[in-house]
Design a protein that fits this description.
Elements (H helix, E strand, L loop, with lengths): L1 H56 L10 H7 L3 E6 L6 E6 L21 E3 L11 E5 L18 H6 L2 E5 L4 E13 L12 H14 L14 E8 L5 E11 L2
Parallel strand pairs: 2-3, 4-7
Antiparallel strand pairs: 1-2, 1-5, 3-4, 5-6, 6-8, 7-8
């Protein structure tokens, strides 16, 4: 009799533990679904906002007739527009007073993990200095600077050898010539070059380290851009794609 009571108590205890485990698992699943749903919703809101920006700028089809007056009156920190035909890159480029705000804020100032493509605030004369640095996230939905990773592949480069950069006063081809993996703390995020020798030394380093070999000729008298995004080969790794600015009529 006593033995039967013990077995019954043990069974009840096991049943209770099983129910507790089930409840905990359901809570974990519910929380995970909530987090995934929140991320997907934020992605959706970000895409929706950038579609609206394209309408304001008149860049849904191409960038030949950007409405700079409308764009800059609505989004005050816009400095340029970057477009890469056949890819998702069709975005405004801003410059703030630090390198933090636009990491997780959109061009209209709303908080969103997509952030905005932004010029390093330490670049004093964007696109007129020897080197201009532009940052952008590598989003899991394929947006923002995600496609830059493809420039490690020569076939991809052959299909997309140049991008188009527009400013309110000029139009440039961004002729891609290199792709390098560096740490986020690298001294190659550089803003001051004292002379042509320093510029040439920087170009020599790029050519030595590049994972993409091209025939593009770049000299110390050229203007270049550095497009930077996350990669995951090591902690705080960054892939930077370099392009030469060629001014168009």
């Amino acid at each position: 009799m006593a033995e039967g009571v013990k077995r019954e108590k043990k069974k009840r205890k096991n049943d209770l533990l099983f129910k507790i485990v089930i409840v905990l698992l359901l809570c974990v699943i519910a929380f995970s679904l909530y987090k995934v749903g929140s991320i997907l919703y934020e992605y959706h809101q970000g895409t929706k906002q950038y579609n609206q920006v394209e309408k304001v700028a008149n860049t849904q089809k191409d960038t030949s007739n950007i409405d700079w007056k409308a764009l800059m009156s609505k989004y005050k920190n816009v400095k340029a527009w970057l477009y890469n035909k056949g890819t998702v890159i069709n975005y405004p480029v801003v410059q703030g007073t630090d390198n933090s705000f636009y990491l997780h804020h959109m061009v209209n100032g709303d908080y969103n993990w997509k952030g905005t493509l932004f010029i390093d605030y330490r670049c004093k004369k964007p696109f007129n200095d020897f080197l201009t640095i532009i940052y952008g996230h590598r989003m899991k939905d394929g947006s923002m600077f995600h496609s830059l990773i493809e420039y490690r592949d020569k076939d991809y480069y052959n299909k997309h050898p140049k991008m188009l950069l527009r400013t309110p006063t000029a139009k440039y081809d961004v002729v891609v010539f290199a792709a390098v993996t560096i740490p986020s703390s690298s001294d190659k995020y550089k803003f001051n070059f004292n002379n042509a020798a320093e510029k040439q030394a920087y170009l020599n380093w790029i050519q030595k380290k590049t994972e993409l070999k091209t025939d593009v000729s770049v000299t110390s008298s050229d203007k270049i851009v550095m497009l930077s995004t996350c990669t995951y080969e090591f902690d705080n790794a960054r892939l930077v794609v370099y392009g030469k600015l060629v001014k168009k009529d």
